[in-house]
């Protein structure tokens, strides 16, 4: 499987985008993911960076996309929605466990207690 050979290639921003998709569930589309990242991390990211990353994650086999119905509020345009594939879930699980393992016991040193 491609991902198992390239696990280390999941970058910080890719993780933020995947976390946005997880948090938004069925409502995960580009602009909503961008808003979620900003609301939770304070990072002001461009919509182009989000879409470029979504495309890359889809190419890596971590995300799947589907096209929604056209809406009047969007002038008849359709939204592209994203969901995690099993490899995306595995990637985030691995990143989550690695982060927790690396930060375990650092509360006092980081002044978070």
Can you walk me through this structure?
The protein is 57% helix and 9% strand. By secondary structure, the chain is mostly helical. The chain has a single domain, classed as Orthogonal Bundle (Arc Repressor Mutant, subunit A), CATH 1.10.10.10. α2 (12-24) crosses α3 (30-41), α2 (12-24) crosses α4 (47-59) and α3 crosses α4. The chain starts with a helix and ends with a helix. Mean pLDDT is 90; it is low at 1-6.
Q: Gist?
A:
Helices cover 57% and strands 9% of the residues. With 113 residues, the protein is mainly α.
Alpha-beta content class: mainly alpha
Mean pLDDT: 90
The CATH class label is Mainly Alpha
Low confidence ranges? 1-6
The shape is globular
> What is the CATH superfamily label?
Winged helix-like DNA-binding domain superfamily/Winged helix DNA-binding domain
Helix content: 55-70%
Instruction: Write the CATH fold name.
Output: Arc Repressor Mutant, subunit A
The figure for the number of domains is 1
Rounded radius of gyration (Å): 16 Å
Strand order of the largest sheet: 1-2
State the distance separating the first and last CA atoms. Answer: 41 Å
Query: How many distinct helices?
Result: 6
> Strand-residue fraction?
5-15%
The major sheet is characterized as:
2 strands, antiparallel
Please provide the ordered H/E string of secondary-structure elements: HHHHEEHH
- Any idea what the CATH architecture is? Orthogonal Bundle
The count of β-strands is 2
């Amino acid at each position: 499987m491609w991902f198992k050979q390239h696990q280390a290639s999941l970058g910080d921003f890719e993780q933020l985008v995947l976390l946005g998709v997880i948090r938004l569930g069925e409502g995960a589309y580009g602009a909503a993911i961008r808003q979620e990242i900003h609301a939770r991390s304070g990072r002001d990211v461009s919509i182009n960076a989000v879409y470029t990353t979504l495309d890359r994650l889809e190419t890596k086999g971590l995300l799947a996309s589907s096209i929604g119905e056209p809406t009047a509020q969007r002038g008849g345009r359709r939204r592209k929605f994203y969901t995690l594939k099993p490899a995306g879930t595995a990637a985030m699980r691995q990143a989550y466990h690695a982060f927790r393992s690396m930060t375990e016991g650092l509360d006092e040193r980081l002044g978070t207690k």
